[in-house]
Each structure stands twice: as C-alpha cells, then as structure tokens.
Amino acid sequence: MVINLQHQTFDLLPEKAILWKEKSSLLVADLHIGKTTHFRKSGIGIPPDMERQNYENLSTLILNHEVDRVIFLGDLFHSVHNAQWEVLNNMLDMFPEVTFDLVMGNHDILPYKMYLSSRLKIYDILDEPPFTLSHFPLANHAHYNICGHLHPAVVLKGTGKQRLKLPCFIFSERQGVLPSFGAFTGNAVIRPNNGDRVYVVTQDRVISLK
Amino acid sequence: MNATDGIGKQIFDWFDAQNWTPYPFQTQTWEACVKGKCGIVNAPTGSGKTFALFLGLLSAFHQSGHSPQKSGLKVIWISPIRALAKEIKISMERALNALDLSWQVAIRSGDTSTSARKKQWSSPPDILITTPESVHILMSKKGYAKYFIGLFGIVIDEWHELMGSKRGVQVELALSRLKSLNPGLLIWGISATIGNLHEALDVLLGPKGGRDGLLVTSDIRKEIAVHSIFPDNVEKYSWGGHLGIALADKIMPIIEGSASTLIFTNTRGQCEIWYQKILDLRPDLAGVIAMHHGSISRELRDWVEEALYDGRLKAVVCTSSLDLGVDFRPVETIIQIGSPKSVARFVQRAGRSGHQPEARSEIFFLPTHALELVEAAALRRAVSSGNIELRTPYLRSWDVLIQYLMTLAVSDGFDADQIYEEVKSTFCYSSMTRSEWKNLLNFLLHGSQSLKAYDEYKKVVIDNAIYRTTDRRIAQRHRMSIGTIVSEAMINVRFLSGGRIGAVEEWFASHLEPGDSFWFAGRPLELVMIKDMTMLVRKSKKVTRRIPSYLGGRLPLSSEMSEVLREKIYNYTQGKIEDAEVERLKPLWTMQNTLSILPREDEFLIEYFESKEGYHLLMYPFEGRFVHEGMGALLAKRITNKLSITFSIAMNDYGFELLSDKPIDVENIINKDLFSMKNLITDIQGSINATELARRKFRDIARISGLIFQGYPGKIKKQRHLQASSSLLFDVFRDYEPNSLLFLQTFDEVMTFQLEEARLRNALNRIQGQYLLFAYPSKPTPLAFPIIVDRMREKMTSEKLEDRIRKMTLDFTK
C-alpha cells in the first residue's frame, strides 16, 4: 500500500514496516528482540523459535527492497542483556552496506557501551526532514512526527456483531504511528480521531480503512 | 468400634451426656475408620458429618496404639470454604475437650498471618484445618516431607465441590504424595449427593484405592417445597428479561412472613440491583436487609454472616457466595431469582432454610422472563425424583501437574521415577503415558517439549538424579503463584477516609472517570481517583444506574434440568398439563403456535425470518447454552463449507441463532447431514479456532502452568518485562508449538467443559431421530425473542478477510 506523506512516498508493508522510497530507508518499530529469551531465562517456557522469526523477517525486507538504511523506532531489544544481543549484531554484520540507526525507546536499557560497540548509531530523536522520528509520540516536534511505542490496533465491527482486532498504521495530521514489528509483541486498541488515516494489516496485505 | 473400650466408650458417654444419639451413618463411619478403611461420607450439611469423621479418626488413632502425646501433625482437614474452618475448629475443640485430649487445632488459609504460619511450620499443630492450596504451599517448603511424616488421617470436606474443579486435581496430587509418605493414611471425603458418588470415590482414592473405598450414606432426607411467583399477566411479562425486577413487590409479603429470608441471585450485578430495588420499595427495611457477594470485602461479608447467624437481618440478597458455609438457623425461607440452572444448586440453596429438625425447606422461584416458569415445574419434578447432576472430574490437567512438579522442585526436589508412579496412581493422570511424562519433564528442564531448545532457559535442573530448582527468584515466584483459582484482574475499592469496601474488575474501573458515580456494595459511590491499583471513592448523592458487571461465565442449564424441561414442553403439546406454571404459560404457547410451532417430541424446530438486523436462523435443541454454542459453531462451520457467508452466533439455554447479512435458502441448505456425527471433532475444532473459545480457556492454563506471572499480591505489577497477555501466548503456541501438551489441553477442556461434547453428541443423536420442521414467522417468536435479546456474539466466517473488512465499519469506541 503506497501512500504519500509530506510529499514523500511511503510503502506500508504487511510485514509491519515502512519503506521510505526516496531514501531507500526502512522504518521499523518495536522489535523487542530477546523478549522470548528474557522470558525463558526467567523460567517461562515460551517456544524459542520466535526469535528467529524476527531476524528472518527483517533480513528478507532488507534484501527484497535493497534498503540502504534501517531506522529502528525504539524498543529494539526487549530488556537486559541476553545472548540474542550477539545474534542480533551478527545479523546486522551480514549487511555491511546498510546503515542501522536506533532511536531509543523505553525498553532499550542496555549499557551505553554495548550500543557503541555495535553497528547501531543511536539517537534520542532523529530529525530527518520532512520528518521527526522518535519512539514515543511527541507533543512538540519540528516536522511531521513518525513514531512507535503504542503497538496500535483497531477493532472493526460489522453486521451480525462481528468483531475483528487488527494491527494498524495510523496517520493523523501531524503524527504517524507504526504497528509493532516483533513476532512476540501484543497490541493495544486505539481510538482513531475523525480525519485519521488508518491502514490495517492482515496476513499478507495492508488495507486502507475509509 | 467397640463401645466398651477406651476412647470409643468415652465418645458414647459424651453423646449420652449431651442427650445425643449417634446416627447410624456416624457409627458406621467410626467403625470403618477403626478398621483402617478409606471412603466418602455422603450426608447433608448440619447432620453431624464433622463428628462422624473426626471422632472416627480419633478412635482409630487411639486403637492403632499411637501415643496421643507424640508431637507432630496428625490430622489434616481440607475445607474449600474458609468460612467453615472456624466452625469446624469449634466442633473439634468441643470434642477434644470432652475426651480430655489436649490436641492443638490450627487453621491455615490465605487469611492466616505470616507469624501464625511460621509458628505452624516450626511447631506443627496436631490438627490442621486448611485449603488445597495451602497444602501445596506447605509442600513447596524445604523439609516438607518431615513435616508430613506421621500424618494419620486426612479429611476432604465438600469433596463434591472440589471434585469438579482443578482444586480437586490439586487434592488428588497432594494425596498421592501424602500416601506415599504415610502408607496406611486414612483418607476420607465428605460429599453432598451428586449423580456420580461412586466415581467420586475413585477420584478421591485413585482408581485402585477406590475399589476398596467405602461409601457411607446417611438416610437423612429433607423435604423441599417449591413455590412459583407468578406475574399477574404472563403475556405482558418480559419475554427476554434477566432481572425479574418487575415482580419485586411480590416478594415483600414473603419477606414479611418469614423470620429471615435469603434471596439468591445469579450474578453480582443482579444482586446489587435487587438490593437497591428492595430498598426503593421498602425504605423502612434499611438496616435489616443486607447484601452479600464475592466482590464485597471479607470484613463486610463477615459482618453480614454474623448478623444473619444472630437473627438480626430480615433478608439478605446474595449470590452463590452463600451457597455453602455455616448454617444460619434463623433463615426460614429462600427466594431464587431466575433459573438456578442445576438441580443440585437449587437443592443446595433450598437446604439453607429450615434447619430445625423435621422442618421442611421452603423455596420460592421468581422467573426473570415468562418462559422460565417452565423451569420451576421442571425443578419440582427433578427434586422429587432425586435427579441430581454429575460432577465431571478434570482429566489430564497438565497445567496443574506442571505446577505441582515445580512445587516439589522448589522444595526438596523430586525423583522422577518415584513421582511418576505416584502421579500415575491418581484418577486424573491414570491414562498418562511415559512419553507424555517425558514431555512434561522436558518442558521443565528445557522450556520446550522438544529437545531442540538449548539456550539460556532456566527453571529446573537434574542434580544427582533429583529434579530441583536452584534459582531463588524462580522458586520465590513459583511459591507466590501456587493455586488454580484464576480470577479476573481486580481493583480494590476503598473509601478516601480508609476502609476497604471490596473489589471490582479492572476493566470496569478503566471505564470510569474521576467524578463518575456507580453503585457498589449496596450504596452509590463516587470515584475520586485510582491510585496503586485501588479506586478511592467517597459516598455519592447522585442517583446512578451504573453497576459493576463481572465477566464470569454464565452457567448452562444442566443436562438433568434440560431433560425435564423438554419433557414438560412435549407433554404440553400432547395436552398433558401437570403444573400450574405450564398452565399459566398458555397464552405464550398459543402465540408460539400462531407465529410458528411449538415442537413435539419427534420434531426439531427451525425458524427463519428477516429483520433489519439481517437474516435470523433459529433452532431449539433445549440442551443448555454450552451445547448450543457448540452446535451453533458446528452448523455455522458446516454451512460455511458450502456457502460464502458469515454468521454470528447467539444462544440461550433453549436454542441458538445464526445471524447473517445474506439470505440463505434454508430448506435446501439445512438437512440432517449438518447434524451428523461424522468429522464432529474436526469440524468443531475448526470452528473453535475462529470462535476464540480456546483462546479464552488458555488464560487459565497459562496462569496455572506458570507461563503468566500474576505478580505479587497487593503490589503493583513489577517485572514488567515479563508480562505477556495470554492471548499473545496462545498465538505463539499455535504458531510455534502446536503439539504442546498445554496447548492441546486447552482444546480438551473446551470440548469437555465448554462445549460439553458428551451432551452435544446425545443432542445430535436425538435430532437424527427427529423430523426437521421449518417455520417462517413474521417476527420473533416467544422462543426466539429471549435469544435475540440475550446476545453473545461469536463470529464464524468463510469469507475472505478483505471482503469482510470492506463490509465492516470502523468502530470508534473501545
């Protein structure tokens, strides 16, 4: 689903990422890498395969869309250090031509030097005109704000009381929010305002809601 | 028991001195205990069952040559209801006193203070009255085996209640361990009458022990008089109501004419509304009526119970929270609002009145909608024929077993081969295979059934062939999570000035803004703020109709009730009218016959009509809402195999509705094949995936098995990075480990308890022998109306997601 935002071309991907065509950049939010492992280290037996899913999804996107740059909009790594941090870095190393930027989120709590020794360039807020990129939705921002953090989803209702909850991209006048990218992340139902553009994500498609 | 020797003589002397004569079932139990037998005592409340077993165990202990002076735990008395513990303790102490035994009796439950618990651990009482959870918590302590060695007898009170729940499985597991520590342990259950008492014996004692178990039944029977409260005008009385408030003035004379009355409602919300209504009608009753339900604070409930006990209350509006517990002698009359759904519950409630010997129990039935009157007739019939429901025991509850194994791992550790034999000897796990056992151990060791996962997972390790947990934080978290009662997230309600009033579900609180008023615990309250998982409130003067509702599932009409209900309706179609209730419903039956048809025994009614909501397809198996949910899902699934169409399903205890936005050619589409038993499981489970039933069930399983940590009680959620919703976990297991025993258990539980597979099969079988009767009413019929009003929608679709989304509108409310 290709949309135009601030005279830029965004391809909203069903993998729950945005391809910013003019910049060959990939925007992804809320991967929560290492979450499964964090649970497992604490004795909670979550199936371990999900971690791999995140890497597969991400590397496929980088390869298929010939991306030059990946911008993580926060909550890249779920919690304190575990072995997935090294796995993640190995994966990033597989793409020497690609730049990786991380706008810090509330879950990104690793010691500073770990980020410094990785391929990641880190930012609190990243101004990339005509956009201001952040993890949290910002109240004051120079440009149109693109962010994550909310894990947005909407509930759809139809006749016969059907009810369906789907993750979504949502763009209001001054702000756009990405759905969470991670395989092991939940979502939160939001209430769009009139005039908001909402794009729901199904298995393999992004659909605009009018 | 020999009456001439030692303690036996003392017991008879004491009874003589009190002018009591032991009932035959009491002496029978005493004798059985002395002979070293195990079993179940089946006797109604207030018949002296505590003495039957307690004195039996004392005699047996005495005759077995044990020294009563020897210190250590001798008897455990498991009571699922905390309120009863105190009364049991008083009875025991009375007997110990009379028999000159200086044994110490202690109570241990969730309410027991930390210091008292510590004392109970360091110097064990002779007798411990406790709950299934507390026994497991004791087993999670280092050195537990030493604590329990020397145990002589264990009694499980209200076994019929425990048996149909996972708390019953906890009891089975605890017994398997205690038996192994103490060969010859005397195990006795106490049970009210249920349809499967012999099975109850097998569940309690294990399939092997059950064979030698004894069933001691008292012949004390109580007469129950069932009266209906009739609306003046059946045609005008609500067809689809659920409150019954319109008949409130009719219960005033009943309350007047009785010393004390219990008014049973089916939900906490209904309880609040009725309390409010009675006060509206009779403000002069303020102070002498009260309300009682599970969300009101313990202190308030205790006050109500004491006042009831002392005869200070004229009436109490309550829920199942007063089904069990101590006897309130002043209570003379019971009023049941709406269908009690089961004969056992109705009998239990009726039994809460008329405690004087030979007094009969009086119970009034108040229908919440007109058709419910038939249920009064059905109840009367079922009560007189003694047609009491079965309690279905849980089988192969892997979640409870995982929790139990962890309990052993955090205390003294366990030997896998030995525990395998013990677990295998229980009723619940008797069909467990070696490979299932291995899978469970793998889950504990590697966090996955398959051995592929070797990562940083940490929970249980094998240390010198003993499975144990070495991580203290994991052990601590586990001890905090022992138990199988999974409740909704609750928020405390407290006055700004202090004083806890009770708790409401988190989602209700999340819909309130400061300044909003709501009605709770029988008074209007205003929300001031929410702080630290507590709603701070003050009294409000505003009139409000906002009442917390609770998500708790509604119970289905039992199989026994359904059967008599069908019989009553079929009899009417034959011109046989046996009850005033059925007679009074004549106008409704006539209307049903005019608009559609009232089905006979050999007919299965299918109604179809269009309204602005869509196309309504209704069917009436009269089998209870759970079976209807399953049958509705099954039919929807099978129809959507033939047509591209979306249905939503609604049901009540009489029938179900499939609503769609497209017309269907009913007589071409609906035939007996749709009700076929072929591929039943596949078709239902295919539909379950879509209807989310399993997803909801998985929540309990995830919590019990430790996949979800509920946090420390009373504290704000810590360890945020370990929080995941059960719905997300469900998706993860479905996508990544669908053969996990825990995931499969979800579907088994849905089939057995949620969709009542056995009943569903019976119903489908019955329909195969019936004639499908199509009717096209111009508007909702008396049978259809309550279903349409009482909607709980499930979706079921074969249309492509994208097509559906196009047809849907964005919902702007949460």
Would you give an account of this structure?
The complex is a heterodimer of chains A (210) and B (814). Chain A contains 4 helices and 16 strands. Chain A is α/β, with parallel strands linked by helices. In chain A, the strands form 2 sheets. In chain A, strands 8, 9, 10, 11, 12, 13, 14, 15 and 16 form a 9-stranded mixed beta sheet that branches. In chain A, strand 5, helix 3 and strand 6 form a beta-alpha-beta unit. Chain A is globular and about 45 Å long. Chain B is built from 32 helices and 27 strands. In chain B, strands 3-4-2-5-6-1-7 form a 7-stranded parallel beta sheet, sandwiched between helices. In chain B, strands 8-13-12-9-11-10 form a 6-stranded parallel beta sheet, sandwiched between helices. In chain B, strands 25-21-22-24-23-26 form a 6-stranded mixed beta sheet. Chain B is globular. Chain B starts with 5 loop residues before the first helix and ends with a strand. The C terminus of chain B is likely disordered. Chains A and B meet through helix 1, strand 11 and strand 12 of A and helix 19, strand 23, helix 28, helix 32 and strand 27 of B. Strand 11 of chain A pairs antiparallel with strand 27 of chain B, so a sheet runs across the interface.
